[in-house]
Design a protein that fits this description.
three-stranded mixed beta sheet
Length: 371
């Protein structure tokens, strides 16, 4: 049954909450220290040092909330961070068990309070959406990761909401949604892909269709316009996360990945996505300014193409961390993002080994907005 007007009035968007854009001020960035060797089989040794480089650069601009499995892993993390010059008072450590380290997907999504924080009966704090996490409807080991979102919210001292959906064909159910599946401009527009949310492959929420997702985004994120792209890139373990293909970088501007080689596996999908972006409108009716970045050459390891993409960058308070792959297009990506973010330091992070875990910088981070 559809929600009643009384029920809808209690939902976050009706109370003035919204999901802020990533470039808005942060209080901290959440990360989880790598520990599952099977996520990088044969390549685990360099991964902690990549994390140390990420922590070192983030901690210069905002607090880093670092999740470690236990005391033993905390000691290991501290040793690596200290050797790399990355351990500082701006790093807070939390001992919570995790299955994997992709905090973008397992962690909560923080919402910003109404602009008018003094309205009667409106909480002026952040709010945390704790979606259900089921390891991208693919892996069996996720029981610890499913708890991470609630733990993050409790640590931040904010109220937790578990989003539910209703359908004419089923009772309400708790919604599965990963942070990497969506991207927002903070002004009412959201990007996602049909491949991730509407496909029957790795299906997260069988009862939900396009209209149900759009209602969910309206009720919980304050979204008024959804831009549906077609599909993600080859090798993407999540089956179509948008943060590997197209990202908002300003209220009316997106960066999107393109592929010039018509023989490349990504050519058709990225070309189709580009067409949709050209026809899209934001919530205020404006056309998008589209900034194109060429994909790196295919990275293949043990016969499998990996989801290497410059779109998996992370926007921090004073910096943008960008995955690079020792590819000629690295420089194009860095120069393009420097023009898009003229007031932020552009920090290249070598991710050729990291991407063997099927994720990069945006996948492993989750921002906590400033209050």
């Amino acid at each position: 049954m559809p929600r009643s007007s009384a029920t809808r009035a209690k939902l976050p968007a009706a109370q003035g909450y919204r999901m802020p854009a990533e470039w808005e001020p942060h209080e901290s960035t959440w990360l989880a220290w790598p520990h599952l060797r099977d996520d990088w089989p044969g390549k685990f040794e360099p991964i902690p040092w990549v994390y140390a480089e990420i922590v070192r650069n983030l901690a210069r601009h905002e607090r880093v909330d670092l999740i470690v499995n236990d005391a033993n892993w905390e000691n290991r993390a501290r040793t690596v961070l200290e050797k790399a010059g990355a351990l500082s008072d701006n790093v807070s450590i939390h001992r919570w068990r995790t299955d994997r380290v992709w905090t973008r997907d397992s962690g909560c999504i923080f919402l910003a309070p109404p602009a008018d924080r003094h309205r009667d009966k409106v909480d002026s704090s952040l709010l945390a959406l704790h979606f259900q996490f089921n390891a991208w409807a693919k892996y069996p080991n996720y029981t610890q990761d499913e708890k991470v979102g609630h733990r993050m919210a409790k640590s931040a001292g904010v109220r937790v909401v578990q989003p539910v959906s209703v359908s004419p064909f089923s009772d309400q159910h708790r919604v599965v949604l990963e942070g990497g599946a969506i991207d927002v401009n903070g002004c009412g527009t959201l990007l996602t892909t049909e491949e991730c949310l509407l496909s029957t492959t790795q299906q997260r929420n069988p009862p939900m269709d396009r209209a149900a997702y759009e209602q969910l985004f309206a009720d919980y994120f304050g979204v008024r316009s959804v831009i549906w792209l077609d599909s993600g890139i080859a090798g993407d373990d999540t089956h179509g996360h948008v943060d590997d293909i197209t990202r908002f970088v300003a209220p009316h501007t997106v960066v999107t990945m393109v592929e010039a080689n018509e023989q490349n596996e990504n050519y058709a999908a990225l070309y189709a996505n580009l067409g949709r972006l050209r026809n899209a409108r934001t919530a205020d009716g404006e056309k998008l300014e589209i900034v194109e970045i060429p994909m790196p050459r295919a990275i293949v390891f043990e016969g499998r193409q990996l989801p290497a993409s410059y779109a998996n960058f992370y926007i921090a308070n004073g910096a943008v961390l960008v995955p690079v792959f020792n590819d000629p297009n690295d420089r194009i990506a860095l120069n393009t993002l420097a023009k898009v973010f003229p007031s932020r330091e552009i920090v290249p992070i070598y991710s050729g080994d990291l991407i063997w875990g099927f994720g990069a910088l945006h996948c492993m981070t989750q921002q906590q907005p400033a209050r």
